[in-house]
Design goal:
199 residues, three-stranded parallel sheet, single chain
Length: 199
């Protein structure tokens, strides 16, 4: 994994650059730990967390989640990552990132395909380790495994995009197939594993 910073105009302070680097460095270990606890089946330590974000911890669904995590690990080894501040700031969508549309097409992502660089935008004003880790793993799952930003009906919220921890958990409870395709479910599953270990 190679990290780059687009900091030509001083967008990030030194402490912010260190925080971004810390977030990236945490990802491979968390992915490895999660994979080990899902292979060949969901181990007891991972069962509660898995069910919280992906529903029933049996059957082919576990294999699907495992494959996404493997692909994320592989992409980390192959690509460079450039983290930059959005310009203009209106590029930020729901929490701390502008999700690259190209990240949804892992085998046809234009110039990133040749340069092997994924550029991820982060909001300097909302920067902390949790937000960064969630943003980076959300975008990484798009690029590596073509996860989606699921839009569905989740009572009592109505027809919504499934963004945020609460909606990701509700999606897992109501539609586990969709949860296994949703980028937010992966980022919160991995972030909980980072914070609390597998339970």
């Amino acid at each position: 994994m190679r990290l780059q910073f687009d900091n030509l105009n001083g967008e990030f302070t030194r402490s912010q650059q260190q925080l971004i680097q810390q977030s990236w460095i945490a990802i491979p270990g968390v992915l490895g730990n999660c994979y080990n606890n899902l292979f060949p089946d969901v181990k007891d330590a991972a069962r509660g967390l898995y069910q919280e974000y992906f529903g029933d911890a049996s059957g082919s669904g576990v294999k699907q989640v495992r494959e996404v995590i493997i692909k994320m690990k592989q992409v980390l080894e192959e690509l460079s990552f450039q983290t930059t501040a959005p310009n203009p700031p209106t590029m930020i969508f729901h929490h701390v990132t502008d999700a690259l549309g190209a990240a949804h097409r892992p085998f046809n992502y234009g110039r990133w395909n040749q340069q092997k660089v994924l550029k991820i935008y982060v909001n300097r004003d909302q920067m902390n380790l949790g937000n960064l880790f969630q943003t980076l793993t959300h975008e990484l799952s798009h690029l590596a495994a073509a996860t989606e930003d699921i839009q569905t009906n989740l009572p009592p919220h109505g027809f919504v995009y499934v963004y945020g921890r609460e909606l990701a958990q509700k999606l897992a409870a109501n539609n586990r197939q969709a949860a296994r395709r949703n980028a937010e479910n992966y980022c919160f599953f991995l972030d909980e594993a980072r914070l609390h270990g597998l339970r």
